[in-house]
Amino acid sequence: MDSTPRTPARARAPRLAAAAAALSLLAAGTLAAAAPAGAAPSPTAVPRHALTGYWHNFDNGSVVQKLRDVSDAYDIVAVSFAESTATPGAIDFRLDPALGYGSEQEFKDDIAAKQAEGVSVIISVGGANGSVAVTDPASAQAFADSTLGLMAEYGFDGLDIDLEHSISATYLTQALTTVHDAVGDGLVYTMAPQTIDMQNTSSQYFQLALNTRDFLTVVNMQYYNSGSMLGCDGQVYASGSVDFLTALACIQLENGLAPSQVGIGVPASPSAAGSGYVAPSVVTAALDCLTRGTRCGSFVPDRTYPDLRGAMTWSVNWDAASGNAWSDVVGPHVAALP
Fold first, then answer.
1. Are residues 198 and 192 in contact, defined by beta-carbon separation less than 8 angstroms?
2. How far apart are the first and last CA of the chain?
3. Phi/psi at 150 (nearest 5 deg)?
4. Catalytic amino acids?
5. Of residues 15 and 147, which shows the higher confidence score?
């Protein structure tokens, strides 16, 4: 996700209770059991149209900010990143001292405060430098157990899969299904594949999305740090244009994912990625093209997708470094989609 070197809704109480219950089940060796009756939150906890942003658990020269200071425009905040452990498949999270938190409890309080405002806070796994290997039943179980543990410990609403190296759709499906079975339909589960990972349904990432689409919240593909790619019309499109955003989204929209499971992921500023930055007005044009059939470039989809989930950015920190110029434009536009 980030190529820059770094240092080593919508009430949430029911979902937090479900995660705590899941951890209790884990300790008791009964993880396969579902969350208690009545614990699952409303399926409308994540807005119909949502803005997602990644929050840095490190200092990379953008803006160091505490979670409480993230712009109110964001509906989903992905804490970046969980890290691998010595146990294959298992993940852990350690708060970076560079952020200035006095304690882990202060960070947990920030998560709860954001959730009280209707924001989903999830833990992201991976990033450009992260590698978590889920390649067999044992590592799949370790991934699920450790994810549920982090959800219970910190109160995360779910997780984001941002693994930018090879993945196994088979075993990640197994792991994510275990997490969903423990938490219930209130789980917020997102993905941020690279463009090459979503060119066709035979890729492992696309297979994972299709395998888990019964409980997948949204795929926010990264339309940056990418070369030219094929659109759903078979034409080649270069990054940095409205056509790149719309013609590549169309592949997902026409190959098994619901419109509500598709979002557009872009950098918040030119400094946030090596390539692929587009002005916020280009993002809103792509959203209008896909949902309303207006403001399209040369590519015009055969139909519209009013239920399109929305947009994502890397990152809320880079957004803050630009005075929230991205979210101030894209956030209200996403909220006003049909």
1. no
2. 30
3. -65, -40
4. 164
5. 147
